[in-house]
Amino acid sequence: MGYDAVGIGESELAGGLDAYSDLFSKAPFPAISGSYTLRGSEVPFIPPYTIKTYELAGKKSIRVAFLGLSSYNSTLARTSTGGKIVVSRDPADQARRYVPELAGKADLVILLANLSPGDIARVAQAVPKGIDMALGGFGDRLTMGDMEDISGIKSFYAGNQGKRLGEVRVFLDGTRVRNLKALTVNLTRRYPEDPKLQELIQATIAKVNEIMKGMAPAANPVQQASVSGAAARRYLTSASCKECHAEAFRVWDNSAHAIAMQTLVKATQDYNPECVKCHTTGFGTPEGFETARTTPKLANVHCEACHGSGASHVLDASKPYGRVAPRVCYTCHTKENSPDFSFFKYWDLIKH
User: Fold this and answer.
1) Mean pLDDT in the chain?
2) pLDDT tens, position by position, 133-179
3) End-to-end alpha-carbon separation of the chain, Å?
4) Domain coordinates of the chain in residue numbers?
5) What is the DSSP string of 251-295?
6) φ, ψ dihedrals at 91, nearest 5°
7) Model pTM?
8) Which ranges of the chain does DSSP label H, i.e. alpha helix?
9) 6-186 is classed CATH 3.60.21.10
């Protein structure tokens, strides 16, 4: 994808050093991090930074340094079959070590920060000068609008799910930074997919889903009865609504809600909790959907996924139950996950 540098974090080291080597040994870009060293020494595991020279108009050029830093984890220790052990270091300490080195080597210093805003603030306190901007990656944290100032360091977060790109425009006076402007580019359908990259993405998604499936609890007959019994007390499924609400049940039964789980199975995302929560009933609650093995009856978006548990309603139908405001739909039909969603358009398909 044309990367000039990639800052390595815990995710890339999660499988151990041998797996890391397999992944990055043939990468066409430098992988950097000043946060990881060999145990018992200050020797960096990989280069802490890289410096690139870019040509400017008028036969000028600018030297840009990329420094990688990640959050400190005192328990991290990644090993290789050769006995090498890599540990994590405090990002503020490592910034004190490396940022001064870059003063005479680069005109612009960019921190690739796998850091929380608090960690960036600590880095800023450790080295008040020398870092021009931080491009942050910390969970799915997003910078809303232009760049944010974190203790004097202009910073920008673009999330971690591959749904967005962060774009920072650098305005120069010669080789000195005059201004920085940032924006988030949402990777909507207007951007065409690259076929080869899409193949890699699909293969990776399928592999991760298979791993998650292997980690899911097995369907134990005794446990299954217990889980199903608990679920039945809270979530009765749409079949229980049919007797009194035949027309509403018919509408639901012919809707995409009734086969929502099949969408995930087809996309090999049926064990991805980020997806499952909106394609099942009661996910994340004690009596709700757990997995397709243990709570199969709660797969799909049943009536109770929107209206709430029907258990008390069955016991006393005279009590208020089931009123849903349109905003409930937007819990799952977000711009990212359902970009074409329009309440009035979609409501016509399921109104009851």
Assistant:
1) 91
2) 999 999 889 998 899 999 999 999 998 777 889 999 999 998 889 99
3) 48
4) 6-186, 195-350
5) HHHTSGGGGHHHHHHHTT-TT-HHHHTTTBSSTTSTTS---TTT-
6) -65, -35
7) 0.74
8) 10-13, 17-24, 91-102, 117-126, 195-215, 221-234, 246-253, 260-266, 273-276, 303-307, 311-315, 343-350
9) yes
